[in-house]
Amino acid sequence: MPKIAIEETVDQRSPRVKPARHLLPSLFRRRVPERRQNNDLEDIKYIPVPGTQEPVPQSGGKPPLRFVIFLLLVILPFLASVIYYVFVASDQYVAEARFAVRALSGASSDDKSGSDNGGGSAGLLNMRSATQDAYVVTSFVRSTEILKRIGEKLDYRSMFARDDADILSRFRSSDSDEKFLDYWQNHVSAYIDVSSGIITLKVRAFTPDDSVKLSNAIIQESEALINELSQRARNDIVQSMQADVEKSGKTYADTLTALNQFQHQSGLLSPEAQAKDSSTLLTGLLAQKLEFETRLFVMKQSHAEGSPTYQQLALALQSLDAQIDKKKSELTGPENASLAKALLEYSRLDTDRVIAEKLYEASQRNYDAVLAEALRKTLYLAVFVNPKLPDEAVFPHRITTPLIILLGLFILWATLSLIWASVQDHQI
């Protein structure tokens, strides 16, 4: 039996130190010098006996731990993703539409001058992009409000909870509305090109027909929303002006009513004309009285007081005096019956009527101008790319998605390996 000579003896009671097992691959492990045991062990040198072979160390038969971790963390998930995306995942079709929110507005003064110089019409309406309202539409597409409106026309839940779709892609009909909103936002997207204001709508469904139906329904509800916003803005603009018109119109009507009541009670259609006629008549009577007085004075000088002519002139003069007193009393008589009082009241009422009429006409012109401006700023939805029936499924990406998953898992594994190697270095 071959013997192995031992150059130096070793204390058998000394414990043997097992080398530390490295969990990380040598690529991420920094080599450090091994520490020397602080004990009484001497270096052992084995000298084989001539004619014998050196024993071959036997392996334990277990795979390295780092290989097992790599297999569980990277390989198995990658294989599972390949099986799912290649053999299990259901086809999903995407319908795309493009539209823009536009607004009509009147040409500015600069545009008008330029059009006049160029020979064009300055009163034409021009179109502008309503970017702010476009953001309102995209927010509306991703909200619960559009689900409420579409639900009145389409059973959108059944489109995403089809039995022929795979269990990971389809929506469970028993889930809440909040969860469906998240699912909806993952399958329906709407984004804006800031430079042009164009909205791109993409709807992903399990059948081509469903994707087109949902796209058309979203466009219809978005157009209805734009019409509501336009109508609301128009109403807000003209509401205050309409209140002013109604108020001024009521004031004008009240002044007309008061003036008509005065004319009916006084029996005078126009006290001004009546006063003018009375003044003219009074002037004629005064002139005739002056003539009669002159003739009577002449007859008195001629001592003809007893003549019939003198008596007739005296009677006529008395009649003229009575008529003159009556006309004066009509013009400047008692306060309640004088024509001057009626003329003053009529002037006040007529002045109120004229002022109310001017205010009503001004408010009506302002209202018409504001209404015309509001009509020129009408919003509308311009669809220039209608959704069409997709020919082939866009999702899932059966090759690129597993490769991306593999890359991500490998990066995760490498990162964890570097972190573990750093921890080992700090422990040494």
TrEMBL record:
It comes from Rhizobium mayense. The keyword Transmembrane applies. Keywords: Membrane, Transmembrane, Transmembrane helix. The chain crosses the membrane at residues 67-87, 403-423. This is Capsule biosynthesis protein.
